Amino acid sequence: MHSVHPLWPLGSLPFVLLLLAIAVLPLIPRAAHWWHANSNKLIVAAACGLATLLFIAGTDSVGAAWHALEHTLLAEYVPFIILLGSLYVVAGGIVIRGDLAATPTTNTSILLVGTLIASIMGTTGASVLLIRLLLATNQQRTRVVHTVVFFIFLVSNIGGLLLPIGDPPLFLGYLRGVPFFWTLHMWKPFLFVSGSVLAIYWVVDSWMFRREPAAARAAESVTRRLVHLSGSMNLLWLVGILAAVIVLVPGRVLPGTSWTVPNFAREAVMVACAVLSLITTRAELRRLNSFTWGPILEVAVLFIGIFVAMQVPLGVLQQRGGELGLSSPNGYFLATGILSSFLDNAPTYLVFLTTAITQPVPSGSVSIALVDGSVVAEPLLAAVSLGAVFMGANTYIGNGPNFMVKAIAEERGVRMPTFFGYMAWAAAILIPVFIATSLLFLR
Q1: For the segment 309-323, what is each residue's pLDDT rounded down to a tens digit?
Q2: Assigned domain for 388 exists
Q3: Total domains, the chain
């Protein structure tokens, strides 16, 4: 969009309708079964995306609509879904078997491990790797929903803060020129938020455990099988994916050579690692993992509609973001976080990073230079990063792995909260922690 059209609220309607479909259709008995099929989700997502493109064509030009589609698919959606998909496939070939005592301490320990490794192997990889172990460990408990919800909070979102490969928004920042290890500067809010949410989980799970029937408590107080890892070859393919993300940055010279990395070289390597994982992993291991294509297909079909349909509201933000009156780190944290909950945190991060660049760097403040020659004040960059990563946990659509974990849990028979039910959990648990974070670290 070259300029904000006065009818932009109408152009944002397809995005709103898609969000409502995701939130409401599973609650309607007659529609829930229809919505369950990924093919029907694709119909709704494609219709909302097409309506958005028609609006852009009608208010601007066909060329603008084509450019929006091309940019969305090639620059945003394809790298996004290939990163998630390759990590999903490779992690799905690593089998962590065990039937541990499903005590609050054990569950908290699993969540802690997932939180710590999410920055290294990505929130998607860590989620796929550990969610099945967590579900198997708790298979005889009658109250499991809260554990999966906290897993999404911690492993699928909060844990990805410390490295660009941890979460898609930080990956996009790295591509814009944010130094690879700069994110480690955010270790204090990381420790505070992850530690607080883990402590809250231990209290909640202890209360839930005491409410379990006596037979379930007795059965889940004993470790029947220690943790055993199979499919270790996939660790090699995982390293290959991470190396591709770090080294193969399109348009940059490959370190130690004069070769400029072409577009999609990174994605080609990631796809190759996923294919090699499928070839080298015994089918038995994927059966033990209950590996199916359903969860990643659900993410793929919904997010293609989300990425296209949100182009109008994102365009408005890009052109009028400066009118929001944002100037303080707290303001950027709140604005980025709220919109990351509903617009997907990766493109929202870019919008507010762009807005932050327009702010003058205060005297004495540290600035970060980006690849296009612009600079951003470090406190504002930290605020945008924290808002995007942390508050992507507020809804199922805030971050790609959220829906994936929900789908895997539902395949295992866990009745996950509705869209609004999950938001209620996030409001009760996360929002107070995020408010404390803003007061402590973003003054």
Answers
A1: 888 877 776 676 666
A2: yes
A3: 1
